[in-house]
Amino acid sequence: MYIVGTSGHIDHGKTSLIRALTNIDCDRLPEEKSREMTVDIGFANIEYPKFGTVSIIDVPGHERFIRNMVVGAWGIDLALLVVAVDDGWMPQTEDHFRVLSLLGIERIVTVLNKIDMADEEMIDYVTAEVQDRLSGSRYADADIVRVSSKTGDGIAELRDVILNNLRRLTHAADAHKPYLFVDRVFASKGYGTIVTGTLKNGTFRDEDAVTLLPLARESRIKKIESHYHELAEGVPSQRTALNLTGVSSDELSRGDIVVKKNFFTGADEAIVKIELLEKKKEIKNNLGIEILIGTTSLKGKLILFSDDAKDTDVFTARIKFDRGWYFYPGQPFIITNPGGYKIIGGGSILMCLDRSVADRRLLRQSLQLFRNYGKEEIIHYMISVRRYAGHAAVIGVFPESEKAINQIVDSLRAQKQIVQVDAFLVEAEFYAAVCALLAKVIAENVGLNLREISDRIGIDAEFCRVLVPIVMERHRIVEKDGRYFAGDAITLDTLSPDRKKTLDVAAQRGKDGLELDKISDEAMKRNARELIKLGFIVSLDGNMLLHRDIYEELKARIMALFEGRDKITIGDAKDATELSRKYIIPLLNRIEGDGLIKRIGDFRIKA
How many other β-carbons are positioned within 10 Å of the β-carbon of residue 414? Predict the structure, then answer.
């Protein structure tokens, strides 16, 4: 299915043109009837045999209703740019033409209306003017059709031209991630809450569970209609009415979002591409603006990364919104002055900002990645400013399918721009640097665990967990009881003089060992703890310490007792080791902790 939308200056006959095409009057509001001026969006449809139903959206032309114009225009596939030949190309014609381009509308047909009110010379003049305006734009080859919505001249030809252009459109995307920007909400007697909008990017079906944003609430689709016909499912690029359960109509409003598999990111700040209508338009930092996005509008401030933005018509900036909203990368928007009357330009969302961007300097430093603002550059930027990101998280913020995003990820990997490590995508230079830093931190600190390593390096513990095995393969690093040691740090010869001195004291103490709470020298106490981590000293109970060799000798005596017997007593152990009860119990407990013996009542048995 496809959506056709009108655009153009006020009083150039957009609504009457639709009436001539469809026999449907799109002016439904009393205000529109009394003022003979379209105020809000209206809807109609054309039936093409063997092609199907084509939805038509009528938008207001007056500059005071530019918000409503964008609400109708954002989701259309083909635009009818209506120009009255008795007026020619007018200011609002230009604004609407720019909006179509900024929103990325694929094709347009220029309709020269009111030919009954002008002679051939005037019609030819306006035709030439339109051709000149279109030249150099993405719509340079657009069809131009002459009609009179009053007499019906050219209407049949226009219907054929519309169908021909629809056949040339890119097939409506179906990424199995359907969403709908709400443009109308009402309560229907006997049914309940109804929302309407243009369905994009997938299919809604009866009984589907959906998420309502910004309510962040789950609802269910009870019924689907399109142009008053009940459907089992709604398909992409179709005017769709959804009967929702679990929500009242006064909880929803125009601008809200209905999404099945939520890929929208909530944020009050975003990195954006900006495209100005006029190259010399004065732009200043912290400029107050209004953003028309989807079917809603948001106020915010435009924050420039550099003064160079003032000298170009396309640049990257940051927008701080007055309130949080929901966005996706690549989502187009229109910028107006506050109040929504004058269009400044447009742009698209590149990345929502959140706490995962720990170093905001990277936002500016990584801007050089942008050339044409394609998806590959956006993904590269997202990973670069975060340094690393979950693979699933990257896929989850885009409306495109998982397959499509993975193809882009594979391309970045092939170019060695990013590295995939388990479930993480990592910026290539950072990957090399963080692996080197991780090895350095382990080498300079004795027996850190994963949490301690991640805290010192400043990376997520889960990311640290997948990096450590890679670093261990490249460096002489070993793991003991969840702690990590550089290979050189665990040899006796490479111990520092202070640690050797503490170890010598432990050896001299023999079976009496050391007691941590009785060591008054803090440096010696610290060295003793590090030697425990390294395995040179064995802690029996957290306080009593033995030199490793002494412990191994005593352990061997205990285990030798099991030769010829199944169980031993504490007395047996005391006799074999010549230790007092003060030491023998902690020793037996430690050997039990090593998994060699078990306690059964007053006896110990071999494990």
Answer: 9
